Amino acid sequence: MNSGTTNPPQQRHRRTGITLGLRQNLAQFMLLVAVNALVGGTLGQERTVLPLLAGQVFHLDLYTSALTYILAFGLAKAATNYFAGTLSDRYGRKPVLVVGWVIALPVPLMLIFGPSWGWIVAANVILGISQGLTWSTTVIMKMDLVGPSKRGLAMGLNEAAGYLGVAGTALATGYIAATYGLRPGPFLLGAAYIALGLGLSVFAVKETRGHARLEAANHTSAHATAHGQLSNREIFTLTSFRDKSLSSVSQAGMVNNLNDGLAWGLFPVLFAAAGLTIEKIGILAAVYPAVWGAAQLVTGALSDKYGRKWLIVGGMLLQAAALAMIAVGHDFGIWLAAAVLLGLGTAMVYPTLLAAIGDVAHPEWRARSVGIYRLWRDGGFAVGALLAGIIADAYGIPAAVGVVAGLTALSGFVVAVRMRGTDHYSHRLG
Which residues of 192-219 are buried (b: 16+ CB within 10 A; e: fewer)? Predict the structure, then answer.
């Protein structure tokens, strides 16, 4: 089975000179890959340090309280994802990207100088808004540039860059924190990323909305009314519930980030309680997104060749198995192996879900559909923080990890039963 896309003839608008394709837009595409690596690094500054900051500096005992920053981040990012798609359709992609970087400017200062946990939570609300605008827009812009034939590869490159940025920064901040303390050193790296990302977005990134319009002019969709005539409410309903493929993708994305929120908030605490050093905790915090990031260079392209559905199903089940290993494990070696498997399972899923949205959604409303998918997906951070915190407070962290493992497996079975292969959607270009 293939992804449901065909290899189209080269498309060029005679008057504007706009051309679709990865090779034809390689310089701008790779610039956006670099920008998204900086977006990921801005998030990665927190992955190792903030869970330790909660206990060691602010003395938060309850897991539910300590995870409030992930809850705040998830809610803010999820809501902003929705508006990012709508705003980028209305005003263009580049202005939304630039505004996202501007919003991030105060975050490192708040993390460095925040005198109470409320400041950390507020910084994560701002970071969530910024991430929703910047990451969503880089996804949409890459889809615009490449057209339909290499969408899985494009999403693999995008997500690989972002999560390698997360991983590298998580590892670096672990060593910085071990050497210089939890504050301010780790967050100075985030400040540098924000400054560089803003500069590149203002001076080097180009608008891509014209590419989406070119694709739309040559696009046939399975949805009879899908040629830009759907309202925002209709697109929300279609993406969330009505369309079997879009809704399957949305729930899988939500569960995927539910277990990522668990990994972000509770794994460092679990590892610290087992007596691991900050350096080893930093390694474990980095290995999972590193494998996730690097493997997406392969899995995105595989989904172009073999289809989206079964790669998603297999990835969700592999994640469930890895989480079960973490729940029953007691030493660095087991947890390291589980982190590798968790990263591999996530890599099978993450770019494939985005590519599946691009397969089904019409180019005229694809940005909005991507935003709605990302609303559900990043809502998983908030659900994961609440669910994991409540269960961990009542029964311990291993129990919370076990419950999330079960939900992840269930999500994979939902995709297996409900989702159509994306060759159901005929994207013929004429």
Answer: ebbeebbebbeeebeebbebbbbbbebb
